[in-house]
Amino acid sequence: MAKDNIASVLAFEKKLVPSDGYMYGTEWDNRGEVTPLTLKEKSVRGTISNRLKPAIQNDPAKLNNEVEKPNLQTVDACALGTDQDTLKLHFTLKVLGGIHQPSACNNAAFKQSYSAAATNYVEQQAFRELARRYALNIANARFLWRNRIGAECIEVQVKALNKGEEREWIFDATQFCTRDFDADDSQANELAARIAKALASDNDFLMLEITCYAQVGKAQDVYPSEELVLDKGKGNKSKILYAVEGVAAMHSQKLGNAIRTIDTWYPEFADPETSAGPIAIEPYGAVTNLGKAYRTPKEKQDFYSFFDKWARGESLERIEDEHYVMATLVRGGVFGESDK
Predict the structure, then answer these.
(1) Cys-Cys with 80: which of 25, 100, 209, 238 at CB 3.0–4.6 Å?
(2) CA-to-CA distance for 207 and 160, rounded, in angstroms?
(3) If residue 209 lies in a helix (H) or strand (E), which one and from where to where?
(4) For 296-311, b where at least 16 C-beta lie within 10 A, e where not — what string?
(5) So what's the pLDDT on residue 68?
(6) Which residues contact 108 (CB under 8 A, 6 or more apart)?
(7) pLDDT at 133 over 80
(8) How far is the CA of 190 from the CAs of 18, 172, 183, 263, in angstroms?
């Protein structure tokens, strides 16, 4: 590869920008009254349940001695009030245009060839497929994560806030599947058209306000984001949940991950034995909770294998591969290539 077409400095700003999600408690039949949910500490005496060494497992006396040891834990918890049966999650999502130009690129030849490829994609595809999948992930309330499980009713209210272009959509999230993107819903299609228009623009944007109500049951636990504690030795809690000014919340990164969980184009998706269902758009198809990368350079299915060819004017075999490349650019990141 010629060195005169290598960008060692190359970055793209993310085009889907969610805020943190704030959590409130309310009643399904009386949503006018909401209260911010707060975190509470619990101190519990747990039992020993981890795998033990064979010497302890095979000796009843040693086993009894081990399980008698107290497993003391202090954790954060969050729950609805005793008179509340519904979780309200509220956040905003900004959709930005300008995918035609990197935010940083130190090679004029690469920038020109990339811009030509991106312009061609926008002219041919106009982000229709990506926007449709983003819209369905909003409609199906995938962003609730664990809070979605066991919810009897889920309603998602979406408002477009751009002046002069205000619009509101209401979705019954239980009517949308999270395992595929086959749904054909007129409201979701309309929302997708607005998202696609913003993504395909040079410098336009779309501002969405998203409010979700999930009827999970009176006084039930709800699940804010869990904080990553790098030095657990200094803290006295084994679980620390996320809150903003006292209000339980979900990280913007977690909400963004849910919205961009649209990758059904990786090789193993069609295999029911190994498929993880739709996965988040990532350069290597990484799914951390499974400890697996579904898009490997060895199989030439990762972002860089596609991008290096496509951005220099070569055609990819499948349009799905182009969708994946553009979705990764919408995700944003630093993608510079070594020029040595």
Answers:
(1) 25
(2) 6
(3) strand 205-215
(4) eeeeebbbbbbbebbb
(5) 76
(6) none
(7) yes
(8) 20, 16, 13, 22
